[in-house]
Amino acid sequence: MNVTKKLCEAGFKAQSQAESAALVLKSCLAVTDTRRLVGNNPAMASESLVRTLEDFLAGSRDAVVLEEGAVAFDLARAKYSISGERGKCLLHLWSTERNIVRRVLEAEIKNDVLRLAVQRLGQTRPSKLEICRERDRRTPSARKAARSAYQQKLRRVLERQFAGFTVAQLSTAMDLERSFGPIYTRGLLKQGRSTFAVLGVNQQETQASIDAALTFGILWLDAFRQAQDGRVLVEGLKLFLPAGTSALARERMAHLNRTAAKWQIYELGERDESLREIDCADRGNIATRLLHRTDDTVARERFAESIGRVSELVPDCEIAVLSAAEVAFRLRGLEFARARLAHTESFRNTQEIVFGVGANERVLAENNVGDLADLLRRARDIRDSHGPRHHPLWRMHPERWLESLVVRDVSAIDERLDSSSMYSQVPAFSAADRAMIDVLTVTREGQLAVVELKADEDIHLPLQGVDYWSRVEWHRARSEFQRFGYFTGHELSTEPSLLFLVAPALHIHPATDTLLHYISPEIDWTLVGIDERWREGVRVIFRKRA
Predict the structure, then answer these.
(1) Strands 127-132 vs 448-453: parallel, antiparallel or unpaired
(2) Among candidates 160, 153, 209, 146, which has minimal Cα distance to 181?
(3) pTM score, two decimals?
(4) Bigger pLDDT: 327 vs 424
(5) Of 166, 218, 169, 220, whose CA–CA distance to 193 is shortest?
(6) How many distinct helices (H) and strands (E) make up the chain?
(7) Partners of 262 in the beta sheet?
(8) Which fold has domain 398-545?
(9) Residues 6+ apart with CB under 8 A from 219
(10) What is the pLDDT of residues 43-86, one digit of tens each?
């Protein structure tokens, strides 16, 4: 690397190749490739490298790890640990498929990618490791080419499949004012005075972008309607998704207002340009299921020793029972440790405590108790309402922080809600994905209520709320909640569930009102704007009801 070469030419000599490489550290705080020297002390360099990795990974919960250009780990499912012992920075990554340990020599951040020079154990030749916050690793030119090719393909399909209609304004041009980016191909199908808005997405985009297509389809439909002078009838939206990817959009579309527009969804096979319309009104084959609720009392008794050990360090920590075999410990929503059952070589279950932030995980032992105590001291000082706002620990998991405040008194969101009976992070599976409902509670009259929380501006808040509401309604209509251990001792109402969408008042996306306008009238929703200083206490600024 250029900086290393200059340093060597200037006369900096280290005792070994590893020590020489450890002289240089790229600053984790720079978005560009700004670099800084960390000194000629290997231990000091190791400590700085450890902090660089920890700070970057703390804010990269959904990152992917690439080794020699190939995806090796998905940090949404994999785990990692970082150690700086004996003057070496070691990165350990593992998942159900593989397990690697690499010594980190250099680190650099550029364009949301942490680039590492690493050594395999037992080898001297360095290799490359990249940790990417952005899952789409295509180059800008490759993305542009794929989108341009899809635009032409969609045009051919539209002209062939919708004879009698004229394809107009097909484009991927940026329109930041209306939140339209180049991911989606937008256009119109016209026949006389009748017009349909068209929006499509190609199969090379991420699943998250495909799932988000309905949000932007609604906004495209509304934007074109607003631009008309009454001479054109904009009947509805035709949404085009890659084959086999429409499950989540279909579930959401089933709960849009059918008197406001005609909603149609198609799966486009890009290889043979085949087209199949999906019936979003038929939810008979939607496979959704609840998990049985774990008995908190039994789980707490099982992990009493571990709970006592952690509570000695953090008396006011939040204890969340995740399952019969796992308990989480949190501080203002930040999970810092778990107690769980582990299998030994003799196939006997034993308890262990693992600690770390995010995917960072280490087993608690006598030789690292001090590391846990140090993590807790940092978290307690930083994760405070008046803490350093730019620190990764302060920024991590804001929804969980907000959730930890809401569950203390959910009636602060709406006086109808019952604080004595509620559940947070309720898993609800469907054919599309695994959802975690932020807060599930009831009113004092026994009516179910879904509370969806956002701490930052999110254009998808309305449709995510609809998604979770629909799953709760599915199980409510089948009287499954009490059968699965929820709300025992309560008489649940037969009235449809309520939906509460909660976000800081100044962080509610401007498109939220438009999206709510197209939600089915069967959903009784309430938009709740809270004070921006919610970390000091949740206080409602306004409520807007359906």
Answers:
(1) unpaired
(2) 209
(3) 0.79
(4) 327
(5) 166
(6) 14, 27
(7) 236
(8) Trna Endonuclease; Chain: A, domain 1 (3.40.1350)
(9) 178, 179, 180, 511, 514, 515
(10) 557 788 888 888 888 777 778 898 877 788 888 888 888 887 77
How many residues are present in the chain? 546
Q: Do 420 and 413 contact (CB within 8 A), yes or no? A: no
CATH T-level assignment (fold) for domain 296-388? TATA-Binding Protein (3.30.310)
Residue with tokens 């699965």: 484
Q: Which residues pair with 353 in a beta bridge?
A: 339
Residue 239 CA: distances (Å) to CA of 187, 284, 307, 394, 410: 11, 21, 50, 39, 37
- Look at the block and give the residue holding tokens 């043979």: 272
Look up residue 166 and give its two tokens: 């004229």
Q: Position of tokens 């680039």?
A: 115
Domain range list for the chain:
2-132, 140-278, 296-388, 398-545
CB 171 within 8 A of CB 182: no
Say if 140-278 and 296-388 have the same CATH topology. Answer: no
Q: Is 280 helix (H, G, I), strand (E, B) or coil?
A: coil
* Pairing outcome for strands 417-429 and 362-363: unpaired
Tell whether domain 140-278 is in CATH 3.40.1350.10: yes
- The strand pairing partners of 267, in sequence order, are 241, 276
The DSSP secondary-structure symbol of 361 reads -
Could you report the per-residue pLDDT of 12-48, keeping only the tens digit for each? 333 333 333 333 333 333 333 333 333 445 555 778 8
The C-alpha atoms of residue 10 and residue 5 are separated, in whole angstroms, by 9
Nearest CA to 184 out of 159, 221, 156 is that of 221
Q: Is the distance from CB of 185 to CB of 172 less than 8 angstroms?
A: yes
Residue 61 burial by Cβ neighbours in a 10 Å radius (0-12, 13-18, 19+): middle
69 dihedral zone (left: phi>0; alpha: psi -120 to 50; beta): left
Q: Which of 105, 116, 120 is nearest to 23 (CA)?
A: 105
More confident residue, 526 or 51: 526
Token pair of 48 as six digits: 């700085």
In the three-class reduction of DSSP (H, G, I as helix; E, B as strand; rest coil), residue 441 is classed as strand
